[in-house]
Amino acid sequence: MLVMKFGGTSVACAESIGRVARIVRERLHLQPVVVVSALAGVTDGLQTMGALSRDGALEDALSLLHGCEDRHHEAAKALFPNKSEAFFKNDLRPLFDEARALLKAVFAVQELTPRTLDRLLGFGERWSSRLVAEAFRAEGLRAVHVDAGDVVVTDANYSHATPRIDLIAARVGTRIRPRVQSGCVPVLGGFIGSTEDGIPTTLGRGGSDFTASILGASLEAESIEIWTDVDGMMTADPRICSDAQNIESISFDEAAELAHFGAKVLHPKTLQPAMDRGIPVYVLNSRHPENCGTRVEVTETSEEGRVRSVACKRGITLAEVFARQGLEAKLTSAIFDALERQKCLVDLAAMSRSNLSLLLNSRSGADALSEFLRDRASVNVIEGSALVSLVGRNVARNPAICARALSALPNLPLRMIFHGASDMNLSFVVAEEDADEVVRALHLALFPRQPAIHHAEAPIPLNKSQEPLLARAEA
Ligand code: ADP
Ligand code: ASP
Ligand code: MG
C-alpha cells in the first residue's frame, strides 16, 4: 500500500485536482490511500473568518465564506459538470451551512475558543476531501470518501492534538484497509481528527503531512508520498534562494532536523511514525511528477560532516534570563515547568553560570516567564527574531564548515549563535528582517551554483527509487 498526500497548492483549483487524479491513476497498482489538504489559502481564510466573527464583523466573515463556497462550486462545475449541482447540494452545501452557523455562534458569544477554532479550521479539509473524491470518480477511479474524523482519533489538546495510535490502528483496520483490499481508493482530509467523543480537533497547521505518516505507519505502507509545489526537500527554501538545489536522498534524522528548524515542506512531526517503521518518505512535485523528488530513508551513518540545507524559522522570541544568584537546578527546572504550563515551546537553549538564553515560539510565553521570575531573575525579551540553521550530520563538529559559515555571514547584527547542542545544526539568531539575506549568504557559501534544471513536459513515470516498490507490487 501507498499513502499519497497532496498539499493545498496541489489541490488549489480544478486544473490541479485534475493533475492529482492523473498522478493517482498512475499509482493504482500500488493500492494508494489519498490524503488531501484544504484548497490553498482556505485554512488561513477560515482563521480570518473566525477572528472577524469574534470581533463583531460577522458580515465580512460571511462574505469571505461565500467566496470560499463559490470557489468550491466553480471547481466542482469544471471537474464534473454533469454531477456538480447534485454533488454540491447534497455533499458540500450542508457543510457550508454548518460553517455559517458556527460563525454566527462565534459572533453571538464574541469568543473563539481553541476547541471552536479547531471545529472551524477543519471545514477546509472536509470540503476538499469530498470534492477530490468526487473528481476522482469523474475520472473513472473507484474513489471513496472516508471521514478523517472517524479514523484519526486524538486527545483533546485542541490546535495541537496528539493522535491515539492504538485507536487509529483499529479504525484503519475497519474503515480503510478493507476498502483498499476491495480495489477502492480511500480519500481523506488531512490535518483533522476528533476525540473519542467525536469532538473535532486538528493536528497543528501544516498537519496533513502528519496525517499521511500516521496512516502510512498504521497501514504498514510500503511508502509515503508527500506531493507539494516544489521538487522535494531542497538546499534552502526556493522562495528565498532561487538557485536552491534538490536533495535526492536524505536520512530520517537530517530531514526531521530540517523540518524542526523551519523547512515548511514537511510538518515537523511527520517523520517519526515513518521512521519507527522504516517506511521511506518521498517528497514530490505535483506540477512535475516526472522529477525524482527527495527520498527520506534510513541511511548509513557517516562521520563526515556535510551541510544538507539552510533552514529558516521566523516568529521566534529570544528570552535572556539573568539570575543574580546563579542558576541552580531548582530555578532552571522551575523555568521549564513555567514554560510548559504556558504551552510555550523551546526551540533552543544555552546556559552559563547565571544566564539562560531561550528561543521561544511565543511572545506571550516569554512575558509569562518574566512575570513568573519577577523576584528571582530578570528577563530580557527580544521579539521578531529568526533562527537560521545549517542542517546536516556532523555540521557542528566540522571546523571547516563552521569557519566557512562564519566568514560568509553578512555584516548584520547577530543576536546569538547556537553551536554544539546537537551535532546536526549550527544556528544563528538574527532579526527577522535580516533572515533572507543571511540565508542567501550562507547558501551561496556552502552550495556552489549549478545550472538551472529544465523541466521537460513528459508523462508521469515513477521516480527511479520507486522501481523496487513497483517490482514488488507486480510480483
Ligand atoms: P503544501 O501545501 O504542499 O503542504 P507547504 O507550503 O506546506 O506545501 O510546503 C512547501 C513549501 O515549503 C515550498 O513552497 C517552499 O517554499 C517551502 N520550503 C521551505 N524550506 C524548504 C526546503 N528546504 N525545501 C523545500 N521547500 C521548502
Ligand atoms: N490545511 C492545513 C493548513 O493549512 C493543513 C495542511 O495544509 O497541511 O495548515
Ligand atoms: Mg504543508
Overall description:
With 475 residues, the chain is an alpha/beta fold. It folds into two domains: 2-229, 3-Layer(aba) Sandwich (Carbamate kinase); 306-446, 2-Layer Sandwich (VC0802-like). 41% of the residues lie in helices and 20% in strands. It is built from 15 helices and 16 strands. The chain has helices at 14-26, 42-54, 58-79, 84-109, 114-121, 123-138, 165-181, 208-219, 252-260, 271-277, 329-341, 363-372, 399-408, 435-446, 467-474, and strands at residues 2-6, 32-36, 143-145, 185-189, 192-194, 200-202, 223-228, 249-251, 281-285, 294-297, 309-322, 346-351, 355-360, 378-391, 414-419, 425-431. The strands form three sheets. An eight-stranded mixed sheet has the order 3-4-2-1-7-9-10-8, sandwiched between helices. Strands 12-13-11-14-16-15 form a six-stranded antiparallel sheet. A hairpin with an 8-residue loop joins strand 9 (281-285) and strand 10. Helix 2 runs parallel beside helix 4. It is globular. The protein starts with a strand and ends with a helix. Mean pLDDT is 92; it is low at 454-475.
Topology:
Elements: E1 2-6, H1 14-26, E2 32-36, H2 42-54, H3 58-79, H4 84-109, H5 114-121, H6 123-138, E3 143-145, H7 165-181, E4 185-189, E5 192-194, E6 200-202, H8 208-219, E7 223-228, E8 249-251, H9 252-260, H10 271-277, E9 281-285, E10 294-297, E11 309-322, H11 329-341, E12 346-351, E13 355-360, H12 363-372, E14 378-391, H13 399-408, E15 414-419, E16 425-431, H14 435-446, H15 467-474
Parallel strand pairs: 1-2, 1-7, 2-4, 3-4, 7-9, 8-10
Antiparallel strand pairs: 5-6, 9-10, 11-13, 11-14, 12-13, 14-16, 15-16
Helix pairs in contact: 1-3, 2-3, 2-4, 3-4, 3-6, 4-6, 7-8, 8-10, 13-14
The structure holds adenosine-5'-diphosphate, aspartic acid and magnesium ion (MG).
